[in-house]
Design brief:
This protein has about 80 residues and is mainly alpha-helical. It has 1 helix and no strands. Helix content is about 35%, strand content about 0%.
């Protein structure tokens, strides 16, 4: 079965084919990038920052000492 356009030139109208979707996709990507960047800027802490404290670390002003190891159990 032959195509109905076989042997004929069918011009493409590129003015509205997919441009709204391409623009929407680009705007969504830019919005997501901006959101990720703003969250990063608000929450990122450089590991070499002297004010940075690791999770679970004792504050510098704490007087609490870390627990010592339990004594070895006597053999029976």
């Amino acid at each position: 079965m032959a195509s109905p356009t076989e042997g004929r030139h069918v011009p493409i109208n590129p003015t509205r084919e997919g441009w709204p979707y391409a623009i929407a996709t680009t705007l969504l990507a830019v919005a997501l990038w901006f959101g990720a960047w703003s969250i990063h800027k608000a929450t990122y802490r450089d590991p070499t920052d002297p004010m940075f404290r690791a999770k679970g670390a004792l504050p510098h002003t704490s007087t609490v000492k870390p627990a010592t190891a339990a004594p070895a159990a006597a053999e029976h």
